Every structure is written in structure tokens, then in C-alpha cells.
Description:
alpha/beta
Amino acid sequence: xxxxxxxxxxxxxxxxxxxxxxxxxxxxxxxxxxxxxxxxxxxxxxxxxxxxxxxxxxxxxxxxxxxxxxxxxxxxxxxxxxxxxxxxxxxxxxxxxxxxxxxxxxxxxxxxxxxxxxxxxxxxxxxxxxxxxxxxxxxxxxxxxxxxxxxxxxxxxxxxxxxxxxxxxxxxxxxxxxxxxxxxxxxxxxxxxxxxxxxxxxxxxxxxxxxxxxxxxxxxxxxxxxxxxxxxxxxxxxxxxxxxxxxxxxxxxxxxxxxxxxxxxxxxxxxxxxxxxxxxxxxxxxx
Length: 287
């Protein structure tokens, strides 16, 4: 496996032929219709998300990263947005052919998403403990006292101070970093086949962001994750593969394959070299 490959779907499948794609996007086009005209936010994107891998998508602001992720679960605001054409295959079904009720069930049971602002991932009228315990009780069949003890241990594990107190607090009572930790825990406890992470750490301070990147890399190990970020280093730390999106009309232009197992550290020579490649490719002018 080489450290750098040209970005197209067929190359990626050949590189990792032992894995079966869980999610595949083919020629996706999502446009926005405004008074100023048509904005081709995503224009012919192809990508493959293999089972059990973390795929990072990076690019400049406005490059269509988040629109691609939102298109997968049909959360693009309409109007003005509209998925014009393409295919999004998940577990043998084209999600773009599903009814509104069917896609809601898939969002509820198959594909979860963590947004940049954790308040959108947490229920504001339930305590943090109730939201985490609900998934423990559902998936591990524990009674409420045992689920509460486990939830406290998990809050402690992710570095939330005074977990015995915080478990009974509501999302608005926690700091941004603590909310993002709780949102990450809640989403992972749902044990859904695919996790979409849309700029999950960008609103945090640098130190908290670094800690949560390390935590996320450990907690999602073995899960299937699509990580959307503008930060090349974040993608390098966490991802098994990295796609780069260039400016509009948006297309995937390169695939990077970082060596080693995430979370990665910058003291490896090949990681530093790849980081330089990522930065250079992001800022190079279009031909």
C-alpha cells in the first residue's frame, strides 16, 4: 500500500480489496438555487466508505464537505438545496430512492451524525445521564442502577470532571468540551453501522480539541466513520484514508493513505511529510 494515490473510486477499491464497502456514493450532485443563481455545492462526487474504517474528508470552507455528508442522510435544506442526481448505496439500497419515512428510520437506526455544535446531537430536556443510560439499557440489557454506574464510569473515562454530579445535569449546564464528549459517548453507545462526524471538534479550543481527537480515535476503533473536517492534521490523526475536496465545482481530487494506526503522532517522519503534502495540495491553484 502506497502513501499517496490518485483519488478515484476504482483505485480505492483495489487498494483495500479485502474490505466490503458499506457506503458508496456515485456521481452525487447537490445544488442550491438562490436569487443569485445556481450554486453547485457538490458536483459529481464519488467515494467509498469501507466497513470498519475511518474516512476523512478535508477541504477549504465551502468546498462541499458538509453538504456531501448531509446528502447521505437527506438533511440538505430544501429549498434552496436539492439533490439533483447520483446514487448513495448503503447495505444494498440506494438511499436516494427511499421514501421520507424510510430515510427517517435509517437516520434513527442505521446512520448517526455528530455535528459541530453538540447541542444539535443532544436532547436539551433530558439529562446527560438519561441520554447515555438509554442506550446502555437498550443495547446491553442492564437495569437502571447498573446502567447509571456504567454511565458514570464512561463520563469519567472521557475526562468529564465530577461525573457523579454531571450525570444529572442538562446539556446547557455543561461546557462546550463536556457537551462534545457526552455527544460522542451517546452516539457511540447507539452502536449504529455508520457514524457521520461533521466538524465535531472545530468549535473547541486547541487543547480540548487535541484531547477529544485522541479520545475519538480510541472510541471509534472498529466502527465505520465518515469524518468531515477542514483540519488536515485532524484527518491524519484519526483517518485510515483521506479524501481531499477542491473548490467548486466540487470533485474529489486526491486520496491519501496515512501509515500506521490512529491516533497518530507528529513525530513520525512520514506523517510530517504527508501533512506537508496535504497542505500543499489544499493551497495549490487550480489549473
